[in-house]
Amino acid sequence: MEIKEIEKKIDDIFSRGAGLFVDPGDAFKKKLLAKAAGTYNKDIIIKFGVDPTRPDIHLGHVVNLRKLRQLQDLGCKVVFLIGDYTASIGDPTGKSKVRPEVDQKEIEANMKTYLDQVGKILRIEPAVFSWIRNSDWFMGVTDIFFPDAVNMNITDTEGKHHSFALPPNSFLAKSAVYEQTRMQVSHLHHEGIESVTLRGLLWTLRHITHGRLIQRDMFQERLDHGEELYMHEMLYPVLQGIDSFILARIYGSCDLEVGGSDQTFNMLMGRDVMKVNHAEEQSVLSFKILVGTDGKEKMSKSLNNYIAVTDAPADMYGKIMSVPDAALENYFELCTYTPLDIVKDILGEIEKGGNPRDTKMRLAKEVVSIYHGSKAAEEAESSFIAVFQKGGVPENMPELHAEKDEYEVFELACLYFGDKKSKGDIRRLFEQGAISYCEEKVTDVHTKVKVKEGDTMKVGKKEWFKIVK
User: Would you say domain 399-468 falls under CATH 3.40.50.300?
Assistant: First the structure.
């Protein structure tokens, strides 16, 4: 790849969908160009942090991952930092209330899901990808608890092997388990163990003022509304900044941190922490926020306005078709590879009187193709046309297992949605005439039906499921 072509790719990375890019003296850009020219032999480390409080990756997350993939293709190494420790505290970003703590068992399950899904976008070979938990340095020896004795195996000076049991929860047992379970040693073969002690945290806090922390707009909003602001929430940006410094110690550098524009304050705090520790400061790149299918709020599972990368092709296609016209530019820019000059022309056709539906169909087909392939995208489009333009019933739809012979239709709708919709929201669908059973509209929540294998139910405008027994 020629230098001019590389420069063009770099400019695209830092312009398309980008928010703030902090790179004093073009330090990061110079490393990229030097790497491409073969004159920079060190790893270029990019940090991407995730609090695994939810198990699925949606298109909002993918905005970051797609940029990371482009940077991988230019020779960078992405470190997927799983904030299992800080997830138990909760990042207050965008939250008007205190974020609830997440159980460690749930975090572990979500972590596995994240790692399984990230391979859909990122290259995951060791040369360009790594991951680590931040409990690796925030969790101390005394935080470990286990009910059983620990077997200690040692070899003496004469080469004889000895094994003996250490009492559970003794300091010696905890120390043995602690050392064996640090990823920085067991997986990354780092010399020694990087850890953050209370003394180290207090030393860092001596260099960060209360005024600096309180600058966060969401903190100010809380205080202006007379709402509580807890100290553990104020510490969150500092802990995220410490993550960057520790990663630099383990990987040799932390050259860039990426995240949504709502993470800008936290990422800049990383520069502050690295500076006071006399480490090379990371550059920071924030991205525009992808709005949800409602076209108003940030895409979020908690708001149920998200499109998951694991959604079936037909579901993904249908959700994109429900996106408001005003959000089309946001989706084209952040979710597709379509050149922005072409996007401008596409949207210009709508302004001239073109049908927004045709533009949405193009968008939906492009997005589905990225995650499921062109054949699946064509089938999803055909299904959409058959069902929503010609009034047919989809051939493929989610299944709901019925254990009884008779149900209230309301009960079936509740089983289908699970915790995705409240009972109040489902009742309103009945009131709005948005529920059909076997293509018959149902408005009374107490309506009972005798279910048969293959019965279909339509919920809302675009969601169908069928009964299996």
Answer: no
Pair of tokens at residue 255 = 């050259």
Question: Which residues share a beta bridge with 456?
Answer: 466
Interval 377-390 mean pLDDT: 80
The closest alpha carbon to 327, from 307, 300, 347, belongs to: 347
Residue 99 is predicted with a pLDDT of: 41
Residue that the structure tokens 């990756």 belong to: 57
- 211-252 pLDDT, tens digit per residue, is 888 877 777 777 777 888 788 888 889 999 999 999 999 999
The arrangement of strands across the sheet holding 463-468 comes to 399-401, 463-468, 456-459, 435-437, 440-441
Domain boundaries defined on the chain: 3-140+195-287, 313-389, 399-468
Q: Are 74 and 36 in contact (CB under 8 A)?
A: yes
Topology of the domain comprising 313-389: Tyrosyl-Transfer RNA Synthetase (1.10.240)
The 10 Å Cβ neighbour count of residue 297 is 14
Span 110-116, average pLDDT: 75
Tokens 């998951």 belong to: 308
For residue range 141-154, list pLDDT tens digits in order.
888 777 777 777 77
How far is the first Cα of the chain from the last one, in angstroms, to the nearest whole number?
57
Q: What tens digit of pLDDT does each residue of 161-197 get?
A: 888 788 877 888 888 888 888 999 989 999 889 999 9
CATH 3.40.50.620 fits 3-140+195-287, yes or no: yes
Sign of CA dihedral 21, 24, 30, 35: negative
Residue 38: what residue type?
A: G
